[in-house]
Structure formats: C-alpha cells, structure tokens
Design a protein that fits this description.
The protein is about 5% helix and about 40% strand. It has helices at about 1-5, 15-20, 35-45, and strands at about 60, 75-80, 85, 90-95, 110-115, 120-130, 140, 145-150, 160-165, 170-175, 190-195, 200-205, 210, 215-225, 230, 235-240, 245-255, 260-265, 270, 275, 280-285, 290-300, 305-315. It is mainly β and about 325 residues long. Strand 5 (about 110-115) and strand 6 (about 120-130) form a beta hairpin. The chain folds into two domains: about 1-175, Glucose Permease (Domain IIA); about 190-315, Immunoglobulins (Immunoglobulin-like). It has a 15-stranded mixed β-sheet that branches. Strands 11, 12, 14, 15, 20 and 21 form a six-stranded antiparallel β-sheet that branches. A two-stranded antiparallel sheet has the order 3-8.
C-alpha cells in the first residue's frame, strides 16, 4: 500500500492519555446508507493486499461485534505465545505502560500502543506483556516485533488485542473487512430465535407454531464458528417476514453518538437496543392473523450462510 508507505499521517495533537482512552471515548460517524456493503468492499480492496494479521500463530478467540454479555466488542482478541507484529508499516503515536508512574489510571487494554498506518487508519495493539516504550521504534516495518504476547489489562488469558480506528470518520472498523481472513467453509450457527411481545411474553418459533397477533421484538442468538472451535460474531444477520426484509444487522463498523455506542441495523441505532444477553435484537415486526413465514439468515465474513425458516399460524 504505497500511499501508507510514502505518506504516514501526522500524529494527533492530543494523546489518548489526555483525551481519554479511544477504547471508551464516544465517537461520531456519518450516517451509513444502503451503500455500506459497497464501501466495506472498497475498503477491503484498498488494504487487503498490504495489511496482515499481527500474529503468525495466534488463535482468534473473540472478534469485532461479539456480544459480550450485552456489550459489543470493538476489536479482535487472540490467544498467543509468540511475538506481535504490526499489520503494516506505521508510526508510533501513543504508548501506554501500566507500570509507569505517569499512568495514573488502569486501562482495560493493559499495555497498549497506537500505530498510525496512514490514510487515517490507526491500529491498536494491547493486552500484551508489559514493555518499556524505549524498546519500540518510532517507525515500524512489517517484520518489526512490537511486543511479546502476554497478560495485561482486563484479561486472564495470554495473548493480545487488536483493533482498527478510522480517525477521519471517527469509527471503529471490523479488522476482518480490511485483512484477508483464513479459509473458512463453516457456515454460522443460529442457536435460537425468540419473539418478545410488548407485554414481555417470549415465544420461541422453533417450539411453537401458534402465536398471537401483535407487535414483537426479534432476538437472534447466532454465531460464527471456526476450525478452532471458538464462537465468534457473524458478519451480518437478516430477518424477513413473508419475503420482505424487516431487519438487517451489520457487524462492519461501530461508532458513538451523544455518548451512546451505535451499531448499524437498518440505520444507526443505540447498541443497547441490539445487544442483549439473550442475543441480538433485530428490531420489531408486526404479526397479523393468518399464515406467516419468518426467515432468519446469518452470514460470515467468508460468505458462508445459514438460514432457518418458521411457518407460523398467527391467531
């Protein structure tokens, strides 16, 4: 990626230590239109040939968009014992050392650094073994060892954390749409679909076909599976009723508005409306008397698809 190699962006005038960690700071984002998927594809084509995953041997254990007890995950976590490399050439713009007297507040990322990879794309590398800043060069190449994997921050598993932040658009980006993933032929799994009425009654269409008419919120417990057996977030979940799409949840970007984390579900909505310990909220649908066909489809980043169909008798 020549534009990155020849034109490293200037570091920000204020560091995360002054403005609050990027991991927690509310962000702004332009309204995403129906061209979101096309934009993601163009973004992937721009970076995919140049950027690589930071580990040669790490195992992905948690990914962008995963439902962590009702809270969205902003990056990828790897279990690893080996060294961590930059995803591309870059410039060190921030470093956090928990053991330093200057670090007054604990960070959920423990030891972490921010590398500007150019084109306003910042890579966040964290939760590795404690490391002194003087060991990290200001400008890094792809083969530069940033740090050894380890344990720091809010985790008890040896490895590291990796995320992408777009400084221009002020949003977090799923690394898997920028960096080519490993070969994956396993479709996502849809473990459960639930319909919750306005009165709070929950119906499971897999167990019952007769459902009262009314307004319902759809919850889908779906996940992507990989060869290692880890359970990850899918790339997209779609809900359709009688052939018409009623809800589409995308796991490609995440931002914040007025202090609320925002995700894309037929437009930007607060994450609190989507992320629930029971699954992902795909919005509301109204069931009227008669026969109804409900279809839930889950897709992963490799394009593998899983769908379930329910024939309902609405009373």
């Amino acid at each position: 990626m020549e534009s990155i190699k020849n034109n490293i962006s200037k570091p920000p005038q204020t560091s995360p230590a002054q403005t609050g960690s990027w991991y927690q700071t509310p962000l702004r984002m332009k309204k995403i239109s129906r061209w979101c998927a096309l934009a993601a594809l163009l973004l992937a084509s721009l970076f995919a040939d140049a950027m690589e995953w930071p580990s040669r041997e790490g195992v992905l254990v948690s990914n962008f968009g995963r439902n962590d007890g009702g809270v969205p995950v902003l990056g990828n976590s790897f279990a690893s014992l080996g060294p961590i490399y930059p995803s591309d050439v870059g410039e060190l713009v921030f470093f956090h050392d928990p053991s330093s007297p200057a670090s007054r507040f604990p960070s959920p990322l423990g030891s972490w650094m921010a590398l500007d990879h150019g084109d306003n794309m910042v890579g966040i590398y964290g939760r590795y073994a404690d490391l002194q800043e003087e060991r990290i060069p200001t400008v890094v190449e792809k083969n530069t060892i940033l740090a050894p994997a380890g344990i720091s921050g809010w985790t008890d598993q040896e490895g590291f954390y990796f995320a992408f932040f777009d400084r221009r658009e002020r949003r977090w980006i799923n690394p898997s749409i920028i960096i080519a993933g490993l070969e994956d032929t396993r479709p996502p799994v849809i473990r459960q679909v639930a319909l919750r009425s306005t009165a709070g009654t929950v119906y499971y269409p897999s167990q019952m076909r007769n459902i009262p008419q009314g307004l319902y919120t759809v919850y889908v417990d779906a996940a992507d599976t990989i060869a290692t057996g880890e359970t990850l977030a899918p790339n997209r979940i779609i809900c359709s009723l009688n052939g018409a799409e009623t809800g589409m949840l995308s796991f490609e970007t995440l931002t914040a508005k007025s202090g609320d984390r925002m995700v894309y579900r037929n437009g930007l909505v607060p994450a609190s409306l989507v992320y629930d310990p029971r699954g992902f909220g795909l919005g509301e649908l109204r069931l009227t008397r008669g026969q109804a066909t409900l279809v839930i489809e889950a897709l992963d980043i490799a394009g593998n698809t899983r769908s379930v169909t329910y024939r309902l008798n609405v009373e």
